[in-house]
Structure formats: structure tokens, C-alpha cells
Amino acid sequence: MAHYTDVANPGSAIGEAIGAAMENALRNKLVEIADEHGCHYLTSGVRKTKAGNKVKKLLMADNYGNEYDIDGVLANEAMQPIIIFESKYIRYKKHNRDKGSWICTAHSAVRRRYHSIRSSIAILAGSWSQSSQAMMTSNDINLFLIPFEYICEILLKYGVVFQWREKEKDKATLAWHTYSELEQYQKEEIGELMASYVEEPLAKLITKILDDTIDRTVEKVLVELVSNLGEVKIYEFPSVEEAIEFLNEENLEGEFLTTDSLTLFDPPPTFEDDL
After folding, report:
1. Total tally of structural domains belonging to the chain
2. Which domain-ending residue is among 183, 209, 235?
3. SS3 for 16-36, per residue?
4. Is 156 within the bounds of a domain?
5. Which residues are registered as beta bridge partners of 75?
6. Do 130 and 254 lie in a common domain?
7. Does 215 reside within a domain?
8. Closest CA to 252 of 274, 228, 273, 269
9. Range of 26's domain?
């Protein structure tokens, strides 16, 4: 007797299913790591609604009251967030930019409000373009990749052929039906095998982030100047002293002279890693 459910988009259905299995496996591992360090790993809110019910989503707000649905957070005993997490599975690279941009926007906004956050981590499964990865890395997000080919190898061990072109619905349907016929423990194994690809380096990074024996120092100072006309200029200094010296200048308004402003003809910035 068939155990599968006919769906309009079987490719999307199996993608959501393995993505959820991976997230469950990652959640179990992160709970274990958090316990080892005397912390808490949360995937839902700790505040209560007006009706007294616990909030199901993990909503974290920015300085302007905008709330973001974050996948997970590792918090200390005082429930101050230390690390925020996202885990995403994507099959087609055409969705990269939207998903990656959301992670950058949400994590950057939340970190400006919760200054206890030390790091952002994204576990990305499937097909992620180099440009999307570079965008997230430039926003100070630590990336852990689970390649699409590795996922295909895992599923093939369970008889699920996961490689097809976007319009090959027959192959996607067969994959969905085969996956649906698997036992629950097999589906959980698939998620665990996916998570195992990043488990060791992920645990090492978290341990490093949570190391309280490291003395705090000011790594850099950012100064943002905003004119009454809406112009913005950002300066970066390697020390507090240099930032103070800059702010003590008499003619800061002169910094907004547009003669040195970039034009639409100027190329994007380049960095050593690009050379």
C-alpha cells in the first residue's frame, strides 16, 4: 500500500522534507553542544503572548521594532543571545540571492540591537552560488556548506534518485514517491547524514566563539556621519584614539563635499581575495 501523498510540486515537496530532516538533526546536535557549554539552544521564543501562550516562532527585533523569524539562537544562562543560526536548503541557484539577502538583512539588523551576539552562522545545503556565498561572508556570516552532490549520494543509498532537470516532473514525482515509502527512521538517518558533513567544524567554531578566556579588545571603530540632506559617509579606524582625533576635527561638515563621491561609472571595490 502506497504511503505517499500526491502533491502539485513533488520536487518542492521532497526538498522541504529533506530540509526539515536536516534541520531536526542540526537542532539535536546544537542542543547537545549548548548543553556541554552550559548554554541554551532555542528555536522558539521565550516570551509569552497576551493570551499567556508561548511564542512558537523565534522572533528577534531590531532597533526599530521590526521582527525577524530566526531559525535558532545559542544563549547563555541569562538568556542573552551569543550566536544566531540559519539553515537553508536550496536546489536551484536562482533562489540564492533572495535567501542570502534575507539572511544578511536579518542577522545584521538583529546584531545591532543585541550587542551580546558574537557570531552569525549559516548552514547552507544544496546549490549555492559563489556570489551569494561572498555576499553573506562580507556581512560577517560564517558559512558551512553541504554540497548538492553529497545530498544526491546520500539519497541514492536509500533508492532515491535526486538528480533531475527543473522541468523533469516525472523524475521528481518518482523521487518523491520513493522517499515517501521510506520508514521514519530512514528519513531521520538522511537528515543526520546531511548534518554530519559539517558537524565537526561547526562544533569547533562554536567552542572557539564561546571561549571566555580570550581578553576583549577593540578591534576597530566605525564612525557614521549623516548629513541633514540624507548623505551618509562611514569611516573605519583601527583604534579609539584615531576615531576621537577624527571627531575632534573642526570641519566635519566638509566631509560631505560630493566632489569625491563615487559615480555610476565607478567599478565595484576589489579585495585581495579577488585578485
Report:
1. 2
2. 209
3. HHHHHHHHHHHHHHHHHHHHH
4. yes
5. 40, 81
6. no
7. no
8. 228
9. 10-209
For residue 161, give the 3-state DSSP assignment. coil
Q: Which residue has the cell 526539515?
A: 20
Asked whether 89 and 125 are in contact (CB, 8 A), the reply is yes
Select the more confidently predicted residue: 250 or 159: 159
Residues 255 and 169 reside in one and the same domain: no
Q: What is the DSSP letter of 203?
A: H
* Mean pLDDT of the 32-56 span: 88
Do residues 103 and 141 make contact, with C-beta atoms less than 8 angstroms apart? yes
Q: How far apart are CA 172 and CA 13, in angstroms?
A: 9
Give residue 75's pLDDT. Answer: 97
* 175 and 67 in a common domain: yes
Residue 260, CA distances (Å) to 183, 212, 224, 256, 263 in order: 64, 43, 17, 9, 9
Q: How far apart are the first and last CA of the chain?
A: 58
